C-alpha cells in the first residue's frame, strides 16, 4: 500500500510539473523577452531626441536616383525619427536553408539611428516547444544570435566580428524600408552606378558594409543586394553567399509612401532561398 501511495504521489508530481511547464510555455511572458524589451527601452532613454524633419536642401544633396526615391515616398518634411520598432506577425521563416526547416515566427525588430544599433527578438516554436532567438550586437563589434528553448534554456550563442558587419548591412536595408529618414544618416555614403543603381555604404565603429539599391523609373526602391552580409557553412566551409531584399506594395502609411512587403533571400550558386517574407507588420516611431 505504501509503495502504491508513493507511486501515486510521484505520478501526481510529474503531472503537476508537466502541467506547469505547459502553462508557462503558453503564456505570453518570457524572462528573456522581458529583459530584451528593458534593454531596448534603456536605449530609447539614451537617444538624442529632436523634432527635425527631412528638408528639400538635404534631399537635393543626395545622388539623383535617391532623390527620385525621396520624391516617390514623400520624404520631405518627414520627421527624423531616432528609432523605429517593427513587429512582424506570423512570418514564415526558414530556420535552416540547407534542410528547409520552416518556422512560424513573430519578429520584434528595433532600429536605432542616433547611435547606430540593431537588435531583434524572434518568438516561435519547434515541435510544440517554444523557441526564441535574439539578434544582437556588442560594444566590441561582435554580432550574433542566441537561441533559447522552452523560455528557460539557452542552447546556443553564436557571435563573431562578421556578425557585426552583417547587422550593419541589415540595418541599412531595413531602415530604408521602415524608417527612410535614415537615407540622410551621416553614417551612410553613396556611389552612383547608373540611373537605376546606387551603392550604399554604412560605416560605424570602424566597421563598414555595402550593398546596391535598385531604384525603378518611378522612384521606388525595389531591391537591395549585398555580397558582404551572408556567410553559410557549406560542406564544412564558411562560404560567402549573396543576400537580397525585395521591396513591394508601397502604400501610404505613417505619413509616407511606405514599403508594405519585404522579402529576404539567400543567393547560393545553385539556388535561391526565400527565408523571410512578410506583409504583416506594424511600425512604431520614436523621436
Structural overview:
About 3% of the residues have low confidence. It is built from five helices and 16 strands. The chain has 287 residues and is of the alpha+beta class.
Quick overview of this protein structure:
With 287 residues, the chain is of the alpha+beta class. The chain has 5 helices and 16 strands.
End-to-end CA span: 70 Å
**Counting H and I runs of at least 4 residues, what is the number of helices?**
5
Overall radius of gyration: 22 Å
Sheet with the most strands? 14 strands, antiparallel
What does the overall shape look like?
Answer: globular
Low-confidence stretches: 15-22
Please trace the helix and strand order, writing H or E for each element.
Answer: HHHHEEEEEEHEEEEEEEEEE
Portion in beta strands: over 45%
What average pLDDT do the residues reach? 87
The helix/strand class is alpha+beta
Share of helix among residues? Answer: 25-40%
Number of strands: 16
What's the topology here?
Blueprint: H1 2-26, H2 31-46, H3 56-60, H4 64-73, E1 83-96, E2 101-112, E3 117-126, E4 129-137, E5 143-149, E6 153-160, H5 161-178, E7 188-194, E8 197-204, E9 207-215, E10 221-234, E11 237-248, E12 251-253, E13 256-258, E14 261-267, E15 272-278, E16 281-286
Antiparallel strand pairs: 1-2, 1-15, 1-16, 2-3, 3-4, 4-5, 5-6, 7-8, 8-9, 9-10, 10-11, 11-14, 12-13, 14-15
Amino acid at each position: 500500500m505504501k509503495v502504491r501511495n508513493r507511486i501515486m504521489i510521484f505520478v501526481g508530481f510529474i503531472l503537476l510539473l508537466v502541467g506547469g511547464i505547459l502553462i508557462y510555455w503558453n503564456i505570453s511572458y518570457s524572462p528573456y523577452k522581458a529583459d530584451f524589451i528593458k534593454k531596448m527601452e534603456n536605449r530609447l532613454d539614451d537617444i538624442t531626441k529632436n523634432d527635425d524633419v527631412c528638408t528639400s536642401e538635404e534631399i537635393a544633396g543626395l545622388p539623383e536616383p535617391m532623390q527620385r526615391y525621396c520624391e516617390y515616398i514623400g520624404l520631405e518634411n518627414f520627421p527624423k525619427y531616432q528609432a523605429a520598432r517593427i513587429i512582424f506577425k506570423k512570418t514564415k521563416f526558414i530556420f535552416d536553408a540547407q534542410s528547409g526547416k520552416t518556422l512560424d515566427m513573430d519578429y520584434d525588430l528595433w532600429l536605432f539611428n542616433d547611435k547606430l544599433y540593431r537588435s531583434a527578438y524572434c518568438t516561435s516554436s519547434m515541435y510544440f516547444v517554444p523557441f526564441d532567438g535574439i539578434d544582437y550586437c556588442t560594444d566590441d563589434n561582435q554580432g550574433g544570435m542566441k537561441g533559447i528553448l522552452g523560455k528557460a534554456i539557452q542552447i546556443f550563442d553564436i557571435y563573431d566580428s562578421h556578425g557585426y558587419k552583417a547587422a550593419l548591412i541589415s540595418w541599412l536595408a531595413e531602415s530604408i524600408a521602415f524608417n527612410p529618414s535614415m537615407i540622410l544618416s551621416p553614417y551612410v555614403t553613396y556611389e552612383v552606378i547608373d540611373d537605376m543603381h546606387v551603392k550604399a555604404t554604412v560605416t560605424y565603429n570602424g566597421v563598414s558594409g555595402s550593398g546596391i539599391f535598385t531604384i525603378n523609373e518611378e522612384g521606388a526602391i525595389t531591391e537591395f543586394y549585398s555580397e558582404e552580409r551572408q556567410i553559410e557553412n557549406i560542406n564544412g566551409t564558411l562560404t560567402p553567399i549573396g543576400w537580397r531584399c525585395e521591396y513591394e506594395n508601397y502604400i501610404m502609411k505613417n505619413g509616407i509612401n511606405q514599403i508594405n512587403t519585404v522579402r529576404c533571400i539567400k543567393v547560393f550558386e545553385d539556388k535561391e532561398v526565400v527565408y523571410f517574407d512578410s506583409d504583416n507588420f506594424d511600425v512604431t516611431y520614436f523621436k
